[in-house]
Each structure stands twice: as structure tokens, then as C-alpha cells.
Design brief:
One of its GO terms (cellular component) is cytosol. With 706 residues, this protein is of the alpha/beta class.
Length: 706
């Protein structure tokens, strides 16, 4: 791993969190997988050697429980869902180089060997612990068979995670007031011998790892609190029959490995399977994953994990500790996505309140507009709200009105007025510079781990193209100034070619169709950004419009269908089982993952609003305040003056990234003194993750919000 800007000379592996083989995929789940696919395609456009891998998470209690309810084996149950996932992802142009599962032979062997290495390295030990036990049903209860009260925040929690509260990982025996989810009986704790991984010994390493870690700021900042609170060692075995056997002596054979041991190891296993299929010369999995395995890559490759934010702890604490203990390469970056809500409310699988992946396709929609919506609608770590109305507006305004409009009008004019391309000898300086700027924006987006900015680079270029052709009016020049008209159209076709290359990560199928319309050789999937710098060379085909308008009547019908389905499902479960996935975090039972409060019925007058002096500011400096864990001292440029403002952002944002950020400030907030620092204003942010409010266009410091 280099930490140099991409592309680097080291092989990269991009992974997506494993979907839990337990139920249908909806568009909330797709956000992570689309994001991962966009990012690996963008790396490849830069010329980065990349493997994109994932697999289905087959083990764990929910699989065993639901399999028993359906009267099939856990293996058969999970394999059925695995096969459906493997068929669904390509339909959304999410194309893994390898998609395996945690129960296959490769992952079993790799997992058991890695656990042996942990043991031989002195990182495992036995410990008598208190495990939940159902005295009526006479059985020990694995963590997912237990519910109770979180010992840290007091919220209702599952046995392995405080899923409704602080989202902290819980060890066996920690949950208070345990109840068996099988029988509803109160559970009791009894002693049981289990295996533990000494995570606490890696606290210093993990602090340094988080300092080096790239990706989204929530993946760096959230785990620091857990380290500061003191890491607890990790129980890696469970009392179950379904899972990978602990690779110990005969006395340990009644224990299986905890699902979060073998799940991330599937990343290694899936990469290995890819190498075995294509050959080590094409991609060397050992060079990517193992320190010292290759003289050319002594520290391993560029590992990038794309996950849901509910599994940050597993990927930034447990997993890197396991890798460090066994001489594997550490992750370079973790990109943790926010959740997807539906019309401001959480997805509810039990009430069929979701837009299912197969349903979206059955409605006749193309996958690329959904990819665009999920990738570009807000920052990757922010929550995204889906509604058919918002989807329509983004498609009609940006894909049809901006990108599609420019491409169709430019290529149609070129096709009708010129035999082929290139139409002029070369691209004009103005357009050449604008294409270079778009490529620079694209490269910066990749190195900033921003899939949204990848899409913005294209829409901004198309917006320029619309302005350029409208300003130049080649239809007025074609008769009187044919050379000048030819130059304009050549420029527009050059912009279209650059769009085809740069838009490939977001809209791969539509970009390939555009590439064919341009008459270019080969496939757009095989070229790098260098192709965007080359002028058009092929014979133009008569263009067709890439994106279709979504009519209001269609949206109304889709909403009616969703409402009818929810009404029908009230009081009943989906008969295909809930997608209780380890990764997605979007499946709730009619709860809202973003804790959106009801809108207030108390109204204020327009005059009251006018009394709020809300301004655009730009953060010039940011530093911590001594003695305050959460507070930062900000120096914010408000145009007329620069003020000191104290804000609780320290644990939620990368402090070094804040200078230069535009924010929205309540300027006439009463002054307050916090930890000896006078705060003169309030920076506005949304939600528990302190999503900073900013501007869409170029409003400068001091601009009044009204």
C-alpha cells in the first residue's frame, strides 16, 4: 500500500460488505454495491489495476432460524438467496470480478488457516464466560437468539449489537435482562468456555491505523471513541451447528466461528478465487493481501472497503487487528455509506414498504438512472431519501435535461451536417481546457473517495457543453461560416466523447451505447481517461436519446401501487423472509433509520424568519479545544468579518478537511462561552452525524440566506 494518489503501481482490491443471505434486496441495499461498482470502475478509468470482489454472508443465527421455519437446511436456504443475489447484481450493472460466499471450500480453508495463525501467534485464549441459556427449552442461546437491554445506552438491543441505540458491538453475556427470541422465555446466564481474540493488545496499532486510514470521515472518527473507552477482547466462537468449525482439537468441535470472523475473510477468499480463475499474471491475490508476498509490493495492495455505516466497527477495529496479527496488508480506505430511506421513512420489509430491486426492473426502468440517483444524491456517508417524485426530478432535470439534451442535440446536428468525425483538425483551446478540468475533477473525486463528485464532473461538463453550443449557435454558422461551424461541432463531439469515458463508472450501459453512437473502436469499458483527451475519430451513427423522461402520471401510479401494497401487508410478514442483512442496515420494522422527528405544527411568521440572520460562511481554520472531547474552535469568514464559532464537530468530521468548507451560519445567535472560548454564531448541521449544511452553487461568504 502506497497512500500515493491513484493510480498507483500496487494492485487494488475494492470490496463491498457481504449481503446477508436471508431475504430480498431492495434499493436501499443497492446503494453500497452501486457505490463500490462506481468506485472500482473509476479506478480502472485512471488505469489502476483493480479487482472488485464480494460474496454472500451465509452463516449466523437468522439463517438458521429462517431455514428451520421453512423446513430446509441452512445451507440450502442460504444458497438459494446467494444465487438470487448473484443474478441480481449484474442486472444493475454491478459486475464483481468474483462473487463467492462464506460457506464455500475456499473461504472455509482460508478462514481456518487464519484462525490457526492467530492461535500460533499467541493472540487467542480461552475464557469462561456467561452465556444466555433458555432453562425451559434447555439450550444455550447464540447472540442473535437473545434480546434485551444495552448495558451502554439502555436501548433495546440484539444479543450481538445495540441495533436500536448506540450501535455498539456487544459480546456474549453483556446484554441485560436477556430474553430468548425462540420461546419468549426469560433467559439466564451460565458459564461456558469460549475462544477470545485479544483485540485490546492492538489499541496502539489501531490508533495509528485510523490516522492513516482514508475514505469517509465517519469511518475514521466513529471508532476513535471505542478505542478511547478501552477495547474489549472479542469472543470469536458461538454455540451453534451452522457455521465454520473452530479449527481446534476434538474438544472444540462443538463450537463454530462467529459470523464476523469468516465474513470479512471472504474478501481474501474471493480475491483468491479471482486470481485462480484468471491467473496470477493477470491479478496476484497474494501480492494484494499479504505483506512481503511480493518484492514489487512489500506492503501489499490498495485495499478499499465499501460498506454500510452500521458495520464500521467491524471493518476498522476487529478486521484490521486480525490482518495485522497475521501479516496481511491493512486496508487503505473504508468508505461507509449512509442509509436510504423511502419518502422520509425507514424501509419496512414486514409491511412491504420498500422499492424492491426486482420490482424496479419489472417497472421497465433502466438500471443506470437508479445508479446515478444513488451515487450522486448527497455525499456517500450521508443518508439518502428515495421517492418516486425525487427520482423523476433528478432523471428529468439532470439526465434528460442536462446530459441527454446536450448529447442528442450535438450528435444529431453533427450527423445531419457532416459525413464523419473528426470534423475539424483539432479541439479548440477553450474546450480542450474544459475537458482537462473535467478529467482533473474526476481524478480528484477518485482520490477523495467521492462517488458523487465522479458524477458531478460529468454533469458539469455537459452543462458547459449546453452553454457552449447555445452560445456558439452553429446552426447559424453552417452556411456562412462553415469552418467555424465545423469547429464548434467538432468541439461538441469531443465533449460527448469525454462524457462517454467519464460517465462510464456511473452509467456503464448508457456510456457504451454513447460510445457506439460516436463510432469509436472497441469498448468504453476498456479505455482510460486518456481517451477523453483524444479527439473524436469514428463515423457518427444517427443518435438516439439516451435517457427517457418520467411522466407525472407514472409517478402517481407507482405511489398508488406502493400504498396499496403496504396496506395489504399491514399485519402480515413477507413470505420470502426479511432481508436481515449484516451489511445494509436499511431493514427496519417501520422505524426510521435517520430518527426523523414529526414536522412541528407550531408555525412562525415570515417576519419572525426575517429576524434570523443566516449567512454563508467559509471555514478558514479548525482546531480542537483543550479539555473538550467534541468541540472545535472554528474561524469562519462571513464576508464582512471573520468570527470564532465553537461547534461540536470533532468526533464527526476530519478536522484537517474542514478548512475551505462552505457552511451555513446563524450569525445573530446569542454569544456563548464554551470551555473558555467565546462562540459568536452557530454552524448549522443536520442529524446525529452533523451533516454540514452548504450551498449547491457558488454563493460566497456573507451571502444572506432568505
Amino acid at each position: 500500500m502506497s497512500h500515493d494518489d491513484f493510480p498507483t503501481d500496487d494492485p487494488a482490491v475494492v470490496t463491498c460488505g457481504l449481503p446477508y443471505a436471508n431475504g430480498d434486496l431492495h434499493i436501499g441495499h443497492l446503494r453500497t454495491y452501486v457505490g463500490g461498482d462506481v468506485y472500482r470502475r473509476a479506478l480502472e478509468r485512471l488505469g489502476q489495476e483493480t479487482a472488485f470482489v464480494s460474496g454472500s454472508d451465509m452463516h449466523g443465527t437468522p439463517v438458521a432460524v429462517n431455514a428451520e421455519q421453512e423446513g430446509v437446511s441452512p445451507e440450502r436456504f442460504a444458497l438459494d438467496w446467494h444465487e438470487r443475489y448473484a443474478a441480481t447484481f449484474p442486472k444493475f450493472n454491478v459486475e464483481f470480478d468474483n462473487y463467492g460466499h462464506t460457506h464455500d471450500e475456499t473461504n472455509t480453508e482460508v478462514t481456518q488457516q487464519l484462525v490457526r495463525d492467530l492461535d500460533e501467534g499467541g493472540h487467542l485464549y480461552e475464557k469462561e464466560i456467561m452465556v444466555a441459556y433458555d432453562p425451559v427449552d434447555d439450550q444455550f442461546l447464540p447472540d442473535r437468539y437473545v434480546e434485551g437491554t444495552c448495558p451502554y445506552c439502555g436501548a433495546h438491543a440484539r444479543g450481538d449489537e445495540c441495533d436500536e441505540g448506540c450501535q455498539r458491538h456487544l459480546e456474549p453475556g453483556e446484554i441485560e435482562d436477556p430474553v430468548s427470541t425462540i420461546t419468549g422465555n426469560p433467559a439466564e446466564y451460565r458459564e461456558r468456555t469460549h475462544k477470545f481474540f485479544e483485540v485490546s493488545a492492538f489499541s496502539e496499532y489501531l490508533s495509528g491505523f485510523l490516522d492513516r486510514l482514508e475514505g469517509t470521515s465517519n469511518a475514521r472518527n466513529q471508532p476513535r471513541e471505542w478505542i478511547e473507552q478501552g477495547l474489549q477482547d472479542w469472543c470469536i466462537t458461538r454455540d451453534m451447528d451452522w457455521g465454520i468449525d473452530y479449527p481446534g482439537d476434538d474438544g472444540d468441535q462443538d463450537l463454530v466461528l462467529y459470523v464476523w470472523v469468516d465474513a470479512p475473510i471472504e474478501y481474501i477468499s474471493s480475491t483468491k478465487q479471482y486470481s485462480e480463475r484468471v491467473g496470477a499474471d493477470a491479478f496476484d491475490w497474494e501480492a494484494a493481501w499479504t505483506e512481503g508476498a511480493s518484492d514489487a509490493h512489500p506492503e501489499g495492495g490498495e485495499i478499499v472497503h465499501v460498506i454500510g455505516r452500521d458495520i464500521i466497527q467491524h471493518h476498522t477495529i476487529f478486521w484490521p487487528a486480525m490482518l495485522e496479527a497475521t501479516d496481511h496488508a491493512e486496508p487503505r480506505a473504508v468508505m461507509a455509506s449512509g442509509f436510504v430511506t423511502l419518502g422520509g421513512k425507514g424501509f419496512s420489509t414486514s409491511r412491504d414498504r420498500a422499492v424492491w430491486a426486482d420490482e424496479y426492473l419489472e417497472e421497465g426502468f433502466h438500471p443506470d438512472p437508479l445508479r446515478y440517483y444513488l451515487a450522486t444524491n448527497g455525499g456517500f456517508q450521508q443518508d439518502v431519501d428515495f421517492s418516486w417524485e425525487k427520482f423523476r426530478d433528478r432523471v428529468n432535470t439532470e439526465l434528460v435535461g442536462t446530459v441527454g439534451n446536450f448529447l442528442y442535440r450535438s450528435l444529431l446536428f453533427a450527423h445531419r451536417n457532416y459525413d464523419d468525425a473528426p470534423i475539424a483538425d483539432g479541439t479548440s483551446d477553450e474546450v480542450d481546457e474544459r475537458i482537462e478540468a473535467a478529467i482533473a475533477d474526476f481524478e480528484a473525486a477518485v482520490n477523495d473517495y467521492s462517488v458523487r463528485a465522479v458524477g458531478d464532473a460529468v454533469t458539469d461538463l455537459a452543462r458547459f457543453g449546453n452553454e457552449y453550443i447555445q452560445r456558439s449557435e452553429p446552426w447559424k454558422l453552417v452556411d456562412d461560416e462553415p469552418e467555424e461551424a465545423a469547429q464548434v461541432i467538432h468541439d461538441c463531439v469531443a465533449i460527448a466523447k469525454a462524457i462517454a469515458v467519464l460517465f462510464e463508472p456511473i452509467a456503464p450501459e448508457k456510456s457504451e451505447h454513447l460510445w457506439d453512437q460516436l463510432g469509436e473502436d472497441g469498448s468504453v469499458h476498456e479505455v482510460t481517461v486518456e481517451a477523453a483527451r483524444e479527439g473524436p475519430a469514428g463515423d457518427l451513427e444517427e443518435p438516439t436519446e439516451l435517457f427517457a423522461q418520467i411522466e407525472d402520471e407514472r409517478v402517481e401510479a407507482l405511489n398508488e401501487k406502493l400504498e396499496a401494497r403496504v396496506a395489504e401487508a399491514e399485519g402480515g410478514e413477507r413470505d420470502d423472509g426479511e432481508a436481515d442483512d449484516e451489511e445494509g442496515g436499511d431493514d427496519t420494522d417501520d422505524t426510521d433509520m435517520t430518527d426523523i422527528e414529526p414536522l412541528s405544527d407550531d408555525r412562525i411568521s415570515f417576519d419572525d424568519f426575517q429576524e434570523l440572520d443566516i449567512r454563508i460562511g467559509r471555514i478558514e481554520e479548525a482546531e480542537g479545544i483543550e479539555g473538550a472531547d467534541d468541540l472545535l474552535r472554528l474561524r469562519v469568514d462571513l464576508g464582512a468579518e471573520t468570527r470564532t464559532i465553537v461547534a461540536g464537530l470533532k468526533q464527526l468530521h476530519d478536522v484537517d478537511d474542514l478548512p475551505g468548507t462552505k457552511v451555513v451560519v446563524l450569525a445573530n445567535m446569542e454569544k456563548a462561552e464554551l470551555f473558555g472560548v467565546e462562540s459568536n454564531g452557530m454552524v448549522l448541521a443536520a442529524g446525529e452525524e452533523a451533516d454540514l449544511l452548504t450551498t449547491y452553487e457558488d454563493a460566497g461568504p456573507g451571502t444572506k440566506v432568505k
